[in-house]
Write a structure and sequence with these properties.
Distance between the termini: 104 Å
Mean pLDDT: 80
Strand order of the largest sheet: 3-2-1-4
Order of helices and strands: HHEEEEH
Low-confidence stretches: none
Radius of gyration: 32 Å
Length: 146
């Protein structure tokens, strides 16, 4: 009986567990489950729009429009082996976006290498130079300086 009484006193002497004060609730945006782009979707879209892809050593990168995020957020690397195409999801595009020659309503964004971009810029500058030279009255076409 003495042990029971000492145990009860010991339990009563223990510090009480304090309930932390309630923190004010911070409104959070609703969490939406994002559905990953299915490979079959990417394959079907690429079959129609892949003609705009810029290949380097049979590899290119694309981004597919995702209606859940309202952006080109699903990135893929495409490998071409003969007539077969293989798609691999990647976290983000690592090449510059192709900004010329692709229709504005394309559901894919395409990339090009830095070398391909520099070549296109060089060709565009040469064409502009030729057009400028041709527009000047009485001037013979001249070569642009490097």
């Amino acid at each position: 009986m003495l042990g029971f009484a000492l145990g009860a006193l010991f339990v009563l002497a223990l510090p009480r567990r304090q309930v932390p004060p309630e923190r004010p609730s911070v409104p959070r945006p609703p969490v939406t489950a994002l559905t990953p782009a299915r490979v079959t979707t990417v394959e079907a879209v690429f079959a129609e729009w892949g003609k705009y892809a810029m290949w380097e050593r049979d590899v290119t990168q694309i981004a597919l429009w995702n209606s859940d995020t309202a952006g080109f957020t699903d990135a893929f690397e495409v490998v071409r082996l003969g007539e077969n195409l293989y798609f691999r999801s990647i976290p983000r595009l690592s090449r510059p976006l192709l900004t010329h020659g692709v229709p504005s309503d394309s559901p894919l964004e395409f990339t090009e290498t830095e070398e391909q971009r520099q070549q296109w810029l060089k060709e565009t500058a040469q064409e502009s130079w030729k057009a400028l030279q041709a527009a000047l009255p009485g001037s013979a076409p001249a070569k642009p300086s490097p």
